[in-house]
Structures are given as structure tokens and as C-alpha cells.
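Intended use. Records like the one below are meant for learning the mapping from a protein sequence to its folded structure. Do not use them to infer anything beyond what is encoded.
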Amino acid sequence: MAVATELFPLGWLIVTPRADAALSDAGDEADTFLSRHVSGDWGEVVPARSAANTLALSIRKPLVSAYRTSKGAALLVITDPVRSKTHILLPEEQQSERRK
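Structure written out for the chain above:
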């Protein structure tokens, strides 16, 4: 994946089966959302989350973006604090992924 400005490394990519199904159903590619995420386009997050992401770039906190597939399914893209893993998942899967 090549983007104009990569603000941080993504690490390993983990796409949950349900997120993969939502992407496939919409005919969307994960790279579209990953490119936006890594370039600082956080998508449909509230202003406080956007500000937290901007701060997290320098203090090593999780980075969280929220997007919708072309069919309207909600997706989250979350990069961990050490930038070793990035998850693409559905919002309702967020708690179970945090426990892993």
C-alpha cells in the first residue's frame, strides 16, 4: 500500500471475519481504509477522538478511525500503541479484540 504521507507504521494487519465479510459484501478493499487511517484521515470520529489521535501520534497511544463501507456498514481501524498491529473490525467486535 502506498500513500502520500504515512504518519505511523501499521504493523501486522488483522481483519476479523465479520469485517472481511462487510468489505466483501460492499466490494470495498481494506487498503482504501488503511490508506486513510495511516495518513491521518480518521473518518467519522468525534472531535475528541480526532484530537486524541493527533496526540497519540507523539505519545504512543492507540489510533482509532471509524469508516463506513460503500454499503453503509460501520468499520473501525485501530492501531495499537506500539504500532505492531492494526485491526479492522466491526464496532461491536471492539471489546472482544481488546481482550486478545
